[in-house]
Amino acid sequence: METMEMYHIAYEKPKVTLLQQSGLGVAEIAARTCYDSFENSENACVKNAMDHLDTNAINNIDDSDLLSSLAWVHHHHSIIEHATLSYLIQGTSRGVLQEHARHRLQAISVRSTRYTMSSVINAFVASLEAEDGFEFFFETLLTLNLFVITDKEYLHIEIRAIHDKLHFQYQRDSDFIHTAVAKSSIPFIEENRGNAAALFKALENGKKKRNVGDGFKHIVSDNWKVDMVVTFNIRSLKNYFDLRDSGAAWFQIQWLAEAMKAVTPVKYLKLIDKNYKDK
Question: What is the pTM of this model?
Answer without folding.
Answer: 0.93
